[in-house]
Design goal:
The complex is a heterodimer of chains A (214) and B (413). Chain A is an alpha+beta fold and 214 residues long. In chain A, 21% of the residues lie in helices and 31% in strands. Chain A has a single domain, classed as Deoxyuridine 5'-Triphosphate Nucleotidohydrolase, Chain A (Distorted Sandwich). In chain A, the strands form 2 sheets. In chain A, strands 1, 2, 3, 5, 6, 7, 8, 9 and 11 form a 9-stranded antiparallel β-sheet that branches. Chain A is globular and about 75 Å long. Chain B has 18 helices and 4 strands. By secondary structure, chain B is mainly α. Chain B folds into 2 domains: 87 residues; 267 residues, no CATH class. Chain B has a two-stranded parallel ribbon with strand order 1-2. Chain B has a two-stranded antiparallel sheet with strand order 3-4. In chain B, helix 6 links the parallel strand 1 and strand 2. The longest helix of chain B is centred in the C-terminal third of the chain and has 37 residues. The chains are: A alpha+beta (214), B mainly alpha (413). At the A-B interface, helix 1, strand 2, helix 3, strand 3 and strand 5 of A face helix 2, helix 5, helix 15, helix 16 and helix 18 of B.
Chain lengths: 214, 413
């Protein structure tokens, strides 16, 4: 696995055209030696307070989806209005860019140092994008600083680095379980769709069936 | 009756039903018990509309074309009734996407008002003059409203229209009225702003919302003639090739459907002075349409599931050699200079969106109807296609708008 330099990135984007990244507003500003800056899109999903004690993933998935909605709120921001991320807050957003990767290229999303210096983290754990991905990439925004951060759509808050690999047999779009493939707006967590919960739920039903009732 | 008339009309009704179901099943609606109760009621209403469609239009009892069309008229009225109650859901409705559309329209065409957009339960809200109606109501009470109504531009948009970018050209006549430009024919002015998509959106709406006792063509003919001229106009200098004809394809289809519908319902086609060669001249001040080759490239992108926010730059012929040879920063930056994507205009995005609907969505729906045992099965099969198309067009409009802001900022002194 090797990292692409700027000429290789350009070649894949402009000549081979097997990597789709659109829009590219200003290549000269966005292209680095081994990276391409990406911008904040217009859609945000904020977390809000809820009276729910916690979300029980063993419930019916529709009920889990409803409970998640109790503490999330979707917003579309006009480009001249900021989404203000307050200290300690977390929100999802998406890249302005729609991205499609071929089966032999993975991407790593990283923050930019200018934003890191004011306490903005753009992903908390999932910064790796599989070969074959198609859609916008979700930012997991956190403000770990002490001052509110106004975020305008179009700002370059992240950068992508590209890694070649042997062509994958199961690119992201073809994976048996993909919860976020092809999504454009930021999508809240679908952790409850992991099959493990289904197995635990079945086991719980079996356990409960054998329990004496009063 | 041509089969395509029934397919397109059913597909347009299906999209309204699906769009309303999307609203009713939003998790945010499910979080409030009172909203959930309203959603359940409205859902039953939609079940009834679907059942009616299934019995009357999908499996018609007769070969009489009018017999298949008349039940669709009832569905249009029923959907209006359901739409009137959407406000009872007590949910947050997002007007930012349609506001971004209006902002971009001002950038594309210039000289437009920037009205406040509010959402309405009335499906006919776009015919409303919010300020005028309010003043009229006050006058009717005997309380003089006074003259201080300027600068309060408000457009009320039906809630379902706000969720569908392909329906946003329906706002344009209201914008033209707000602009107060009386020198130009309103239909021509609207087409100049939004391109042929204005006619396609109006005609699609007319097919499902016009009562069976009323012909649609008289209200559409002027718009049709203008849109036809406008769609072919950009190719005028190069001759009319297949690509140029493709750009006017939605216009031709909806002209054909409107006339077929009226004929099937027994209306005589009244001649109109402004049809054909007498169409109102198109102002050159309109937003530019894409060239035929650009439109074809955008359509190919959309068909591949890629947003159409930008037109790819042409690659210089010696680009690969120069890229291989470049060995200093200045050389690389010189190479990058002509490679910027150009944001697509709204008439381009919407025009290609409608072309995509004609080329892909209607056939997809026809196939879903053929293979599904029931209308419900067809709707289930069609839903992901409609959602993906809507998401791609929303992303296209928003990304093009943001891109335009940064591009202008870079290029303007």
């Amino acid at each position: 696995m090797s990292i692409l330099n700027e000429r290789q990135i350009l070649h894949r984007l402009m000549v081979a055209r097997d990597v789709v990244i659109t829009p590219i507003v200003d290549l000269a500003t966005q292209l680095g030696p081994t990276s391409l800056d990406v911008r904040l899109g217009t859609r945000f999903q904020a977390q809000k307070r809820s009276a729910l004690a916690y979300i029980e993933p063993l419930q019916d998935p529709e009920e889990v989806r409803r409970e998640i909605a109790e503490y999330t709120q979707d917003y579309t921001m006009r480009p001249t209005e900021p989404y203000v991320l307050h200290p300690g807050e977390f929100a999802l957003a998406n890249t302005l860019e729609f991205i499609r990767l071929p089966a032999d290229l993975a991407v790593r999303l990283e923050g930019r140092s200018s934003w890191g210096r004011v306490g903005l983290q753009i992903h908390s754990t999932a910064g790796f994008v599989d070969p074959g991905f198609s859609g916008t990439i979700t930012f997991e925004l956190s403000n770990i600083g002490k001052v509110p951060i106004p975020l305008y759509p179009g700002l370059r808050i992240g950068q992508l680095s590209f890694y070649t690999s042997e062509e994958s047999v199961i690119p992201y779009r073809s994976k048996r379980l993909t919860k976020y493939a092809g999504k454009i707006a930021p999508v809240g967590s679908a952790f409850y769709q992991d099959p493990e919960y289904r197995y635990i739920r079945r086991q719980k039903e079996r356990d409960d069936a054998g329990r004496p009732t009063l | 009756m041509p089969r395509d008339l029934l397919t397109v009309t059913l597909c347009e009704l299906a999209e309204q039903i699906l769009a309303m179901r999307e609203v009713l099943t939003e998790p945010a609606v499910a979080t409030k018990p009172h909203a959930r109760a309203v959603a359940t009621l409205l859902g039953r209403g939609l079940d009834a509309v679907e059942g009616h469609l299934q019995r009357a239009a999908i499996v018609p009892d007769s070969d009489d074309p009018a017999a298949a069309l008349r039940p669709l008229d009832a569905c249009g009225r029923a959907l209006r009734g359901l739409h009137r109650r959407l406000g009872l859901l007590d949910k947050r409705w997002d007007t930012a996407p349609i506001d971004i559309f209006l902002r971009q329209l001002r950038e594309d065409a210039g000289g437009l008002p920037h009205p406040a957009v509010v959402l309405s339960d009335s499906f006919d809200a776009l015919d409303d003059d919010v300020a005028g109606a309010l003043r009229h109501d006050l006058d009717a009470t005997g309380i003089a409203a006074g003259a201080a109504w300027h600068g309060q531009a408000v457009i009320a948009v039906p809630r379902l229209v706000a969720t569908n970018p392909l329906a946003w050209p329906l706002l344009l006549p209201a914008l033209v009225r707000l602009r107060g430009d009386t020198a130009q024919d309103p239909a021509a002015a609207a087409v100049c702003l939004g391109g042929p998509a204005v006619f396609a959106a109006q005609a699609a709406q007319a097919l499902i919302m016009t009562p069976a006792g009323t012909p649609v063509w008289p209200a559409l003919s002027r718009l049709a003639a203008t849109a036809q001229r406008y769609a072919i106009h950009p190719a005028g200098d190069q001759g009319i090739g297949d690509d140029a004809l493709a750009a006017s394809e939605p216009v031709s289809l909806f002209v054909h459907l409107a006339l077929s519908r009226d004929s099937a319902l027994g209306f005589e086609r009244a001649p109109h002075a402004h049809e054909g060669a007498d169409a109102h001249p198109v102002s050159s001040a309109g937003a530019p349409l894409p060239s035929p080759s650009e439109a074809a490239a955008l359509l190919a992108k959309l068909a591949a599931g890629v947003p159409i926010n930008a037109v790819d730059p042409p690659l210089p012929p010696d680009f690969v050699q120069r890229l291989d040879a470049v060995d200093d920063p200045a050389g690389l930056y010189d190479l990058l200079e002509p490679l910027g994507e150009r944001p697509a205009t709204l008439p381009a995005i919407l025009g290609v969106g409608w072309l995509y609907k004609v080329r892909y969505s209607y056939p997809y729906f026809r196939e879903a109807l053929r293979s599904g045992p029931t209308l419900r099965a067809a709707l289930d099969a069609y839903r992901p296609h409609m959602i993906e198309r809507t998401e791609l067009l929303l992303q296209s409009i928003e990304a093009a708008h943001v891109q335009g802001i940064f591009l202008r900022g870079r290029l303007e002194p």
